[in-house]
Design goal:
The structure is a single chain. This protein has 283 residues and is an alpha/beta fold. It has a single domain, classed as Rossmann fold, CATH 3.40.50.720. 48% of the residues lie in helices and 12% in strands. Strand 1, helix 1 (14-23) and strand 2 (29-32) form a beta-alpha-beta unit. It binds NADP nicotinamide-adenine-dinucleotide phosphate.
Length: 283
């Protein structure tokens, strides 16, 4: 098999970093993230593991930064798969950066790499919280359908106005940023579906999103105290978090040859959390 470049935005930490290591079986790996310190440390870890790794700082919410990242990518090798693991959580995060990074960032990454896709996989990271979001409303869907035509500022301003109010008291207790996060991940699922046809035109390329439940990464560890972590674990069939390596392993299998019919879907990987939430278990 020709060795093509495996691109991982958000490849400097957590599930992105583990995925970078796993996908190195398919070719050289390029990782990006905003923090140069995290980038250097992730590159050292991957090199130590024998990975042919390249790195460049990038901010997926900044088109100019992504342009430079893509130029660097295509200078290394033909593009293989593009994994967009860059994302921010809701803990201590205002609504606007969640919209810019999780929503517009997903759009910008696809736009930047689309011309270079060739029998490739694009994998976005959604979240099972997207399935709990009470939307999109009619207005929200209209806005999401205009992602390509609206200016960045117009998109952000209109989305800030539209984020739904929670209809579930447990969600309401988690606050506005949580709702914005859930909305941003519902958008990732929708955006992935909405681009299946366009991506397929690049020599049969595929686009999917993965919805993690609760995976033990710096994001999850940083945003939840011990009591919350214990409660999250109880919400899974296996009473534990997933590991970044388990996520990386799934992605490595999904992008392997032989899955050329799989596109436009959101794949839930959550240790049975959704099953417990939506179906009474038969004992
Ligand atoms: N962990 C979970 O249980 C869980 C559950 C559901 C969904 N997810 C989603 O899964 C993805 C990976 O999460 P993780 O848990 O592995 O988190 P993580 O360990 O915090 O890693 C996030 C990565 O994204 C990068 N990043 C953040 N903002 C960026 C930006 N604007 N431009 C470029 N890179 C950026 C971070 O680096 P810098 O900060 O240096 O930029 C880091 O490399 C995220 O999209 C997250 O929302 C995670």
């Amino acid at each position: 098999m020709e060795k093509r470049l495996q691109v991982i935005t958000g490849g400097t930490s957590g599930m992105g970093l583990a995925t970078a290591k796993a996908l190195s079986v398919y070719g050289p790996v390029l990782i990006g993230g905003r923090s140069e310190k995290r980038l250097a440390s992730a590159m050292a870890e991957l090199k130590e593991a024998g990975v042919e790794v390249y790195g460049k700082p990038c901010d997926v919410s900044d088109k100019a930064s992504l342009k430079a990242f893509v130029e660097y990518a295509v200078s290394i090798a033909p593009i293989g798969n593009v994994i967009n693991a860059a994302g921010v959580d809701y803990a201590n995060m205002p609504k606007e950066p969640i919209i810019r990074i999780n929503m517009l960032g997903t759009h910008y990454v696809l736009e930047a790499f689309l011309p270079y896709l060739d029998d490739s996989y694009v994998v976005n990271f959604s979240s099972i919280t997207g399935n709990f979001y009470p939307g999109p409303s009619k207005e929200e869907k209209e806005l999401w359908d205009q992602t390509q035509t609206l200016s960045e500022e117009e998109f952000v301003a209109r989305q800030l106005e539209l984020t739904a109010k929670p209809n579930d008291p447990r969600m309401a207790a988690l606050g506005d940023s949580y709702m914005t996060y859930a909305m941003s991940k519902r958008y990732v699922q929708y955006y992935t579906q909405a681009n299946a046809l366009r991506v397929a035109m690049k020599n049969g390329s595929r686009i999917i999103s993965i919805a993690p439940g609760s995976f033990y990464t710096p994001m999850l560890a940083g945003g939840n105290d011990e009591a919350m972590q214990a409660s999250i674990k109880r919400g899974t069939v296996y009473q534990r978090f997933g590991t970044s390596e388990e996520m990386a392993d799934l992605i490595c299998h999904l992008v392997a040859p032989g899955h050329g019919y799989l596109t436009g879907v959101d794949i839930i990987h959550d240790g049975g959390k959704t099953a417990l939430a939506f179906a009474k278990q038969m004992m």
